[in-house]
Design a protein that fits this description.
The protein has 279 residues and is an alpha/beta fold. The chain is 47% helix and 13% strand.
């Protein structure tokens, strides 16, 4: 019987295939790098939120979704949308309202297909008083907006965040929510500070449960907004606070968020200028 030499494998075929796959991955990564970053900012109709979306709208390679409870009254957002019709979109978004959040996310899915960065900025600070002066209703309203709001937003938006290669969720918190610092201040920040402490806890849980998510918790500083004006008129300690501009705070927040990468020992309570505070 004649000896038939077995056919040898052709490693060159594998090499060509491997090179082709590498080229495809390289092209995909280049396309991904050229794709605009898709942002959603809640509470974007005034104050810090408006400052953030204004700076984002002026930047390159961004698609911005600005959330507002009543878009019909958000004239500044309407002006930005008219100026940047292809990249700036206003969505109706009511804090802690599941139906509103789901509808906003559905619109974002239709227009952009994904979310890369969410900045949960919507919040309230409507009462200053001691423990004995704080009603359950006031405390619960602060928890609803400042804690439940970001929780519902994350739950609704998570499917779109998963479509991003590097999803980020940033929460505008406050130094008032620090147990070590905020709770020790001689001011009537109970309802506000407790709600921010709760959302800080939420941020750490999000980080621990979602290993592909980058979470940031930010203190925006004492910012010259309507909320700060109310605080200074209502509380002696707040009246002494030195304020920075909305533009300075927004620029700092975006710098922290845009350069953020996931680290296992984070998130931390981070100031708008990058400084860190204890929980």
């Amino acid at each position: 019987m004649a000896y038939i030499e077995p056919q040898k494998e052709h490693p060159t075929v594998l090499t060509v295939s491997s090179r082709k796959a590498t080229r495809i991955l390289l092209v995909l990564s280049q396309i991904q790098a050229m794709s605009p970053t898709v942002y959603l900012v809640s509470g974007a109709n005034r104050g810090i939120g408006l400052g953030i979306v204004t700076q984002l709208a002026a930047g390159p390679d961004t698609i911005v979704f600005a959330g507002a409870r009543d878009p019909s009254k958000a004239s500044d957002l309407s002006a930005l949308s008219s100026k940047h019709p292809d990249t700036f979109h206003v969505v109706q978004l009511t804090s802690a309202d599941k139906a509103s959040n789901e509808a906003a996310i559905a619109e974002i899915r239709r227009v952009a297909g994904r979310l890369d960065v969410i900045i949960a900025n919507a919040g309230i600070s409507s009462f200053f008083g001691d423990v004995l002066d704080t009603s359950p209703e006031v405390a619960m309203e602060h928890q609803r907006v400042n804690f439940i709001g970001p929780l519902v937003l994350f739950q609704s938006a998570w499917p779109l965040l998963q479509k991003s290669p590097h999803p980020k969720f940033a929460i505008i918190s406050s130094l008032a929510g620090s147990i070590q610092v905020g709770a020790a201040l001689p001011s009537g920040l109970l309802s506000y500070g407790a709600s921010k402490a709760a959302v800080n806890y939420l941020a750490v849980k999000m980080h621990n449960e979602h290993k592909d998510l980058t979470v940031r918790v930010l203190n925006p500083g004492g910012v010259a907004t309507d909320m700060a004006a109310f605080a200074q008129a209502s509380d002696a300690l707040m009246a002494q606070m030195q304020l920075i501009t909305v533009q300075e705070s927004a620029a700092g927040i975006l710098s922290v968020v845009d350069t953020a990468i996931r680290k296992e020992d984070e998130p931390k309570l981070t100031n708008y200028d990058g400084a860190e505070y204890p929980w």
